[in-house]
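Go through this pair.

…
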Amino acid sequence: MNERLSPGTVALLLVPPLLWAGNAVVGRAVAGMVPPLTLNFLRWAVALLLLLPLGYGVLRAGSAIWREWRRYAVLGLLGVGLYNSLQYLALHTSTPVNVTLVAASMPVWMLIVGRVFHGVAIRPTQVAGSALSLVGVAVVLSQGDWDQLLALRFVAGDLLMVLATIIWAFYSWQLTRVPADAPVRAHWAGFLLGQVLYGAAWSGLFAALEWGLTDWRVDWGWPLVLTVAFVAIGPAIIAFRCWGAGVQRVGPTLAGFFNNLTPLIAAVLSLSLLGETPRLFHVLAFALIIGGIVLSSRQPKA
C-alpha cells in the first residue's frame, strides 16, 4: 500500500463518487416505485448475474471464497447488504444532497476505525482536515440551524446515513486485510463476485423481511427497469471495482477523502434532474468539506 497518488489512482478514485452520486439521485427518484431493501436486492442480484461469466472461476471447489467464507460473508454484509440498504432507506426521508453530504464524514470514520481496530497512526493534518469535514456534516444535519443540532432534531434519513458511513469505513478497512497477491484478489471480477455472492444472500434476507413486515409493492415499468440496470452496472460493479483497487493502492483513509466529491456531484444532478436547489447551508458545508480535503491530503515533510 503506497499513499502517494498517481494519475492512474486519482482516475480510479474519481469514478466512484460520480457513480454513487448518480445512485443517490436515482434512488430518490424511484423511492415511490420500489421498497428500499427490495431495490438493493434487485441491484445486487443483477450485478451477480453480470459478474458470473467474468469471475466464475472463483466458484470452483476449494476456492478461497469457500475456505475463507467468514471473510467474504463479512465483506458482503458490510459493503453490499448493509451500506446500500441503509442508503436507500435514508433516501426515503432525506435528499440526495443531504445523504451524500452526511457520507462526507467518511474520512473521520476511516481514521477512527483505522486507529482503534488496525493500529494505524493518525497525522495532525488528518485530524484537522477531518474536523473541518465533520463540521460540514453538522451544518447539513442541522440545516444551518444550530439550535436544531443541539436539540438533536435530526432527519431520520440523515441518521441512517451516518450509520451507513460508519459501516462503509469498516468495509473499506476489511478490504486491506486481503493481500494484493492473494489468488482471488488477483482477479478483480472474481474478488468482487465473492463479495456479491454473499452480499446478495444478505440482501435477499433483508428484502424478505421487508416484504413480510410491510405492505410495500413494486411498481414495475421501464423507469424502474432502467434504474436497476444502472445501479447494478455503474454504482455496483464499476464503482466497487474502482474503489477496491484505489483502497488497495493508497489505503482507506486517503481514498475516503475522494468520497467528499460525491455531494457536489449529487447537488448538480439533483438540481438538473429533481429540481432540488442547494441552499446556503449546503454552500457552507461544501466549503468546509473542501477545506478538509485540502488540509488532510498534505503529506508530512521528510
About this structure: Residues 142 and 148 are 6 Å apart (CA to CA).
